[in-house]
Amino acid sequence: MLPAANKVGITLALTFSLxxxxxxxxxxxxxxxxxxRDADLELRDIRCPSPTHCxxxxxxxxxxxERGVVVLTTDAGQHWSLINVxxxxxxxxxxxxxxxxxxxxxxxxxxxxxxxxWSKLDSLKGLVxxxxxxxxxxxxxxxxxxxxETTDGGHKWAKVDAVExxxxxxxxxxxxxxxxxxxxxxxxxxxxxxxxxxxRRNPATGAIELKPADDTVxxxxxxxxxxxxxxxxxxxxxxxxxxxxxxxxxxxxxGYEGRHKEYPxxxxxxxxxxKAGETxxxxxxxxxxxxxxLPNGRALIxxxxxxxxxxxxxxxxxxxxxxxxxxxxxxxxxxxxxxxxRGAVLAAPDADHVWxxxxxxxxxxxxxSGSGAH
Length: 374
Hints:
Layout: H1 4-24, E1 26-33, E2 39-47, E3 54-62, E4 65-73, E5 81-85, E6 89-94, E7 100-104, E8 107-111, E9 119-122, E10 127-132, E11 138-142, E12 146-150, E13 158-159, H2 162-165, E14 173-181, E15 184-191, E16 200-201, E17 208-209, E18 215-221, E19 229-234, E20 238-244, E21 249-255, E22 265-271, E23 278-281, E24 287-293, E25 299-305, E26 317-324, E27 331-332, E28 334-335, E29 340-341, E30 344-350, E31 353-358, E32 362-368
Parallel strand pairs: 1-28
Antiparallel strand pairs: 1-32, 2-3, 3-4, 4-5, 6-7, 7-8, 8-9, 10-11, 11-12, 12-13, 14-15, 15-18, 16-17, 18-19, 20-21, 21-22, 22-23, 24-25, 25-26, 26-27, 26-29, 30-31, 31-32
């Protein structure tokens, strides 16, 4: 039997250790919420070029009217500014805290000051994604079977020649996911040979929707876009997101909405060296909507809990964030119970600063429970 003094010492040590663990626990805290009567904000993308500077973009629906907006912070979320833009944002990309680009429903815009002021570069329509390798060299993609390259910061765009020989008819193909890791780049598109795949918007949410496709076409470059190879891949669902998940590995989110599947989605990890991919995440009550690989090797999945027994997310469900250190075992994180969404986008400027924006007008930040962070 331990002496009483030793018991007290052990108790105090355990108490102190537990306090340290609890104090360092992470949780997702709402930092911004657009809560206006008879108006809704659908945030469609978020980019954080630094730990203190984040920019989100989307559309406000107010009594039948829509207007594009940008929401930004330069002090890690303590204060936010809402800025009107002339068109409806779809996707953002930032090279640094100052220089960024925005794809809208009617063209491409750029900002020289971190998202406060925007000027239009081009009126290309049907675009969905954009990515720049430096201030001059970038790519944009969309419909119909559209992949363009610029070497002057976005003032002029030329169609990538490899698209012409890639599988799929133009009227049936949309490229909607661009990912680069250094000079290694992937541009993925969906094909449906049965009928055209036009871009359309859900009248209730304003979100871009496509008919679920059976085939995915992937353009790959190893030299920053000088040369490309193409291949087609069959998924029993629609490729929703493609993200680099380490050296020579990608994570792919495939959605099964409308496919009468047991799962609403699945996340696959595939080697780019020819090895077969594997399912790393699939849960019946978690619809994965985004994936992020942090610099320290930790992976995050943003997911939505479908309401009731459905595997689909027709109305907002609870936002869930899961983490893994090995792309195998996933742990649910502490997320503010008020956070609900149909879709969400993750942004991580580094391993210690991570954000998520929802299509219900919320922006959450991952904070230490005992840090007193705002």
